[in-house]
Amino acid sequence: MNTDTDLLNQNLLTSARERVPSLRERSDEIERARQLPQDIAESFARSGYYAALVPKCYGGLEVDPLTYSELIRTLAEGDAAAAWCAMIGSTTGLSAAYMSESAAREILTPIDTAITAGVFAPRGKAVPEGNGYRVSGRWQWGSGSPNAQWIAGGCAIIRDGQPELMPNKVPISRMMFVPADEVELLDTWDVSGLCGTGSTDFAIHEKFVPTERAVAPATDKPLERPLYLFPIFALLGIGVSSVCLGIARCAIDELISFASAKTPEGSLKPLARRQDTQMTIARAEARLRSGHAWLKETIAAAWDSACSRGEIPIELRRDVHLANYHATESSAAAVDMAYHLGGGTSVYRRSPLQRYFRDVHVATQHILVGPSRLEMAGQHLLGLDADRLLF
Question: How many other CB atoms sit within 10 Å of the CB of residue 212?
């Protein structure tokens, strides 16, 4: 990295650290609203969080993946839902690397106010029409959609009544970017955790999308920059696991904050003086740090390969996905340990531990840190065929 890039990254992370206290103060408000308040979303845009992965040539920051991970993890220490929205906005924004310049600038200008959201899952259908597609569908998990000016939904391309297929017989999927005022937001986000992400269902009804706003990350060629050698799904998984790491850090710190003052019912010793507490909190700390360390190690190795060799071998792609899974699993385990150590204190609304518990166990449900990633990594380690497109 050059000095200017180092300074830009440092300023971005400093901004995130300085924002943590204010996000904590507004966590209850964010949860009650069931979406990120618009003023926070707009301040995130001004700070460059949504533009973190957008190409520099289109006004973005194009940060390296380690900086991106640290940004999301830091924001999660303030509020997990807010960090999740920043993660979704930034990973949707990196789709600009696969677009024409005119389409990217249409969606992202001005960059300091641009907010995008979207769902990669191909829940919609797109029928070719003229120089574009006629798009319809309904998508779940539309995180950050209430704040966005542009919303994207993954679509199967339907030609002559049949889905178009890639050479490996997998259906072609394209992300269709549509202005937010052409999207119907459905009030479905009534959930146990990550309540403030606004991850509501949304629908698009027979809207025309020009070809230049239809992105296929699996088949389209992105800009020739090291960052865009990382598959979008790998970067999205890094974001999910980084949110979980931030949650776990908060859970352990919260338990430590009252362990010396609380004496459990039936005990003569404060919680901090009990051997089981000492061993469990040490185990939680080790789980968290090991998950974080291996994630950083694998991201750094993949980034070094992208910069020095112009490619990321399949083995490193596998390891990034496996490290995402491990960091998420380790974070959830650490949160569980802190939650159970807290006893009855943990269940009250006034205790942050109950929110950390709920939030991390919603994040673990994301497919990119779920059992399918573990299965594919295992297949590759055993020398079996694994779907490389998902790596």
Answer: 16
- Give pLDDT tens digits for 226-242: 999 999 999 999 999 99
Torsion of CA 215, 217, 219, 225, to 10 degrees: 110
Domains of the chain with bracketed CATH: 3-108 (1.10.540.10), 117-215 (2.40.110.10), 230-390 (1.20.140.10)
DSSP-assigned letter for residue 227: G
pTM as predicted? 0.96
d(CA 245, CA 299): 15
351/113 Cα distance (integer angstroms): 35
Mean pLDDT for the chain overall: 95
Residues 6+ apart with CB under 8 A from 202: 138, 139, 142, 145, 151, 153, 183, 184, 185, 186
Max CA-CA distance within the chain?
77
Contact 254, 356 (CB under 8 A): yes
**Helix (H/G/I), strand (E/B), else coil: 91:** helix
**Residue 160 φ/ψ region, left for φ over 0, alpha for ψ in the -120 to 50 degree band, beta for the rest:** left
SS3 270: coil
